[in-house]
Design goal:
Length: 429
């Protein structure tokens, strides 16, 4: 593949490449590029929103370039202010490293991680933890306060009188400095990272390096239109159970279907249009759910999530989600469970929670406390409100009394809404 062909492939789906001509020149040089992505381990899950960027990095790897994942175990102690309306609580180094453990396994579902010529994992505490104050001053001198306040999230907070801590101004410099030890050629990130990626170009120049290319990918919203986040309970984790991935994809609001097809699959624009128009919302949901579930159920997702992959699962493309069965047992099971629950059934398989004996009083426990211990509500108060709204069930029966006491002498099935189930049982004597 020529440099021009590689450039054409890589820019598909990108929001911005700054500057495009630099990326083309780097590809034409014939050298192996260093492509960087920083991940702050503030949460232990990687979701399919992150996968939008990771899949593009996989393309770089397939073209022979090297991907460097930098776990921001040190910068997470600062807290990335990108897109924040208030200061993000800092984490300890121990907390960030604990969260980072699962990141290493999860990126391996998408990236080629068993070839040291194409993958490297680094922790930015390696160089930031011992960075002297002299270097911090040098970094901070690269931008003015006025330039910092041009950044949208800082500008909004400043205008609204929301406090901005000085340490938050240091975050873009710390992230930018990450590009220096690895001599980064291309830094990847979502649209919320544009400012940080551009600061990285300034930092590299200050240290005598060639400026990196800022490669900016779109952000995937949750199925409800909000930013995909665990906080909003609208994320789809790449390592979740296939039945959960299928369920969540089937619940995406119709207006976001095209965006999900564009960002989460490799279907052509014509194929996406065909699925949406001829399959309708229900058929299109099925195609998307089957394709993505089938891909992420594998130890490493296929290079392309396209029509041949869909048909390899045993479905006919022209049926647009109407044909049942397929040949992949994992997707079959996920789909069957989804429709079982949709028709009011209680699935055989569900998470199980053992209730400690010290939570029981003569073998009894309040129903509100039971749902909270099961993880279906965040507090006893929320459980009581949901019971009053007839939003919780016990063994399939709608609960009506928020003060009810339950005898926990056998396993019970708790249900929130149509599709969230937990089986609870007492701790064995």
């Amino acid at each position: 593949m020529t440099a021009e062909e590689a450039f054409g492939l890589l820019r598909i789906g990108a929001v911005e490449i700054i500057p495009q001509e630099d990326l083309l020149k780097k590809l034409q040089s014939g050298k192996k590029l260093v492509v960087k992505l920083g991940l702050d381990p503030t949460r232990p899950d990687i979701h399919i929103g992150h996968a939008v960027v990771l899949r593009k990095m996989r393309q770089f790897q397939e073209l022979g370039h090297k991907v460097v994942i930098i776990i921001g175990d040190f910068t997470a102690m600062i807290g990335d202010p990108s897109g924040r309306s208030r200061t993000r609580p800092p984490l300890t180094l121990e907390e960030t490293r604990a969260n980072a453990k699962s990141y290493v396994e999860q990126v391996g579902k998408i990236l080629i991680t068993d070839d040291p010529n194409r993958f490297e994992l680094r922790y930015n505490s390696e160089w930031l933890e011992n960075l002297g104050f002299k270097e911090v001053i040098k970094l901070a001198s690269l931008l003015t306060v006025a330039q910092m306040l041009e950044r949208e999230d800082f500008k909004k907070r400043y205008a609204e009188g929301v406090p901005i801590s000085i340490h938050e101004f240091l975050y873009p410099f710390a992230q930018g400095y990450d590009s220096v030890p690895i001599a980064c050629d291309v830094e990847m990130g979502g649209t919320d990272q544009k400012f940080n990626l551009l600061v990285g170009r300034e930092v590299q120049e200050a240290y005598g390096l060639e400026r990196q290319v800022a490669f900016i990918m779109p952000l995937l919203v949750g199925g409800d239109g909000q930013k995909m986040s665990k906080s909003y309970d609208n994320y789809i984790g790449i390592s979740e159970e296939p039945s959960e991935i299928f369920r969540k994809l089937m619940k995406i609001e119709d207006q976001y279907l095209q965006t999900y097809f564009e960002l989460c699959t490799d279907l052509s624009p014509g194929e996406i249009k065909e699925a949406l128009e001829q399959g309708g919302p229900v058929g299109a949901h099925r195609v998307l759910a089957r394709l993505v579930t089938g891909a992420y159920a594998q130890p490493r997702i296929p290079a392309r999530l396209d029509r041949p992959l869909y048909e390899s699962l045993g479905y006919r493309w022209e049926a647009f989600g109407q044909d049942q069965g397929g040949q992949n047992p994992v997707v079959q099971h996920a789909e069957a469970r989804y429709y079982e629950i949709a028709h009011g059934g209680i699935p055989d398989e569900m998470p199980e929670v053992v209730i400690p004996t010290d939570e029981l009083s003569e073998g009894h426990i309040s129903v509100a406390r039971l749902f909270t211990l099961a993880g279906l509500t965040v507090s006893n108060g929320e459980a009581r409100r949901l019971i009053e709204q007839k939003g919780l069930r016990l063994d399939g029966e709608v609960l009506i009394d928020p003060r009810m006491e339950i005898a926990l002498s056998k396993p019970l099935v708790l249900q929130r809404g149509k599709d969230r189930f937990v089986r609870v049982k007492p701790k064995p004597a």
